[in-house]
Amino acid sequence: MEELKPQYYYPNKMARAYLMGLEEALGRAGVNAVLTEAGLSYLVDKLPPNNLNKEFSFEAFAAIQEALEKLYGVKSGRILAHKAGGATFKYGLKEFGAVLGIADLALRVLPLNVKMKVGLNAFAETFNRFSDQIVRLEEDEHHFIWINERCAVCWGRHTEAPCCHAAAGILEEGLRWGSGGKEFEVVEITCIAVGDDACRFRISKTPKE
Question: Domain 104-204: which CATH class?
Answer without folding.
Answer: alpha beta
